[in-house]
């Protein structure tokens, strides 16, 4: 009943602004004929008029400040908006954005991404350091053209067309779900699922929408058990979502087979997380020993964390040391390709493009760490001064031990015990 009232209200509103649209159509038939043609061929033609979605402030429209957001579409498409906002797509913008209020190049128009009109209360507290390091142009085209999926239905449906086959085409997903950090499109396309879809059609080879938007739902998060960065969902949520995905897979496969395959993906995920953890530990200990160059204190401040070492999901790919650049590639690209390749049934991505690279990253990081340690010893040790070299090595080991304690890797008792053992070994 509520939805019917909303639809009727929207239709009434459209008829009221119809007079205004009499001025839109003749002009835009000349200025933007493609948009008018698309609207006339859509389900919105003669039902939903220009001002009903765009408003009547022509100056704001021309300036790009009158965005047609998902909430505008939700006036009529209430269920789809609710489903969308409940999914990871509904968090797309705020997982890739960051508040620019303290940035010297601040663009006032950017405020609309995190604040309702006329409000200084943020919609989300999430920040993205990588976004904040970019120019406005890269941030707009290179970041938010994908992350705007949160607030723009046009990301998948386009601006004026309403034909459902557009949003049902897996290629519409490829615009964002491709590349080094989340190549789901390439994984699917080159998997058996993708090959069967191409040769025998969607009834035989499932596509993105069939698995992630079953029955046309706009909640794309059903079946997920971890965040894009590999952080696990709480056990109860993970179990519920796994049952959901097994049910999807069971449309074509035996349930036991589907659960075994997904469980194998879980094991690969955990093995991959363990490899990344080894690399993170190495980089942290190099920083403790003062061997990163440039050090966090010597480089431009991190947008969110200042002059501290950052190795988590806010890690940057610029203004870092070389070994941190290797770590970024490892956990942002190769970890993702390994794990997502496993869950998307693509053996090449799971092994050679993902897991092999992940392991070779660790080889590179270990080798670079050894080089940095040797360089640190050489620079700090005059020729023949073995006692100074030993003192320097002990100082570095004490710094590393202190770092482990401060990060909570060891408790106070273990810290004191290991520290005493180290100092005793020096005095012997």
Gap between N and C termini: 84 Å
CATH class of the largest domain: Mainly Alpha
Integer average pLDDT: 86
Low-pLDDT runs of 5+ residues are 4-10, 12-20
Largest sheet: none
* Count of strand segments: 0
Report the sheet-strand fraction.
Answer: under 5%
Number of helices: 21
The domain count comes to 3
CATH superfamily of the largest domain: Hydroxylamine Oxidoreductase, Chain A, domain 2
Q: How would you classify the helix and strand content by structural class?
A: mainly alpha
Query: What is the name of the CATH architecture of the largest domain?
Result: Up-down Bundle
Question: Which value, in Å, is the CA radius of gyration?
Answer: 27 Å
Q: Give the ordered list of helices and strands.
A: HHHHHHHHHHHHHHHHHHHHH
Word description of this protein:
- With 428 residues, the chain is mainly α.
- It folds into three domains: 111 residues, no CATH class; 50 residues, no CATH class; 200 residues, Hydroxylamine Oxidoreductase, Chain A, domain 2.
- Helices cover 58% and strands 0% of the residues.
- It is built from 21 helices and no strands.
- It is globular and about 95 Å long.
- About 4% of the residues have low confidence.
Secondary structure elements and their pairing?
Blueprint lengths: L1 H15 L1 H14 L1 H8 L9 H5 L3 H5 L7 H4 L4 H8 L43 H4 L3 H12 L6 H4 L6 H5 L2 H4 L9 H6 L2 H9 L7 H5 L22 H15 L5 H34 L33 H22 L3 H34 L5 H21 L5 H16 L1
Helix pairs in contact: 2-3, 16-17, 17-18, 17-19, 17-20, 18-19, 20-21
